[in-house]
Design a protein that fits this description.
This protein is 20% helix and 38% strand. The protein is an alpha+beta fold and 189 residues long.
Length: 189
């Protein structure tokens, strides 16, 4: 499993209805994309749930071929054509879990990026983050790592917002999940 996200920060006066319409008309195009576990079409809105406006899709790829095909194909080129080429963050998947609310349609998502502290065993640190997937209201959760920076990311889809959950909060506009059932549950080490 590979995790991937790009975040496009938009001007403070940007009409976020444009993003909603974009997802409503194009989101279904990845509903059967080969190699994709899931794609959460995420948005943050200034003054609603965020200090900025942004469009920030998050992907869990079941295969690297699928990810590569997307990045080099017409789907990502549409982003480049409309917004410029964003920096794409990428993490190696460490764990995935369906949560207690796995059958619910997610309304919100959180992304927590934290450095793995010096002197702390990466596996123990990752295990602690992976175990949080069992919290009430979790639809699905993934933990991944960027070993070039020793940064861990915990991405969680929620049935409803949990105000106590740390991290960046996003609205989920659509969820493409052609390979979600095939994402391997549990720790990947």
């Amino acid at each position: 499993m590979q995790a991937m996200q790009y975040e496009i920060t938009l001007p403070a006066d940007y009409d976020m209805e444009i993003i909603r319409k974009r997802v409503a008309t194009r989101g279904h195009l990845l509903d059967d994309f080969p190699g994709l576990g899931l794609k959460a079409y995420l948005m943050r809105e200034l003054g609603v749930d965020s200090p900025v406006n942004s469009y920030a899709p998050f992907y869990l790829w079941a295969t690297s071929d699928g990810m590569n095909s997307f990045l080099c194909g017409p789907g990502f080129q549409g982003i480049v054509d409309d917004f410029g080429r964003p920096r794409v963050r990428h993490w190696a998947g460490l764990a995935y879990a369906e949560g207690p609310a796995s059958s619910a349609v997610p309304a919100t998502a959180t992304r927590l990026c934290v450095p793995v502290p010096d002197g702390v065993e990466p596996a123990a640190f990752a295990a602690r983050e992976a175990d949080r997937a069992l919290a009430p209201g979790v639809v699905a959760s993934a933990v991944a790592i960027d070993p070039s920076r020793w940064e861990l990311v915990r991405f969680t889809l929620w049935e409803q917002a949990d105000p106590s959950e740390p991290g960046d909060r996003f609205q989920v506009l659509h969820l493409s999940q052609p390979g979600r059932a095939g994402l391997r549950s549990g720790r990947h080490w």
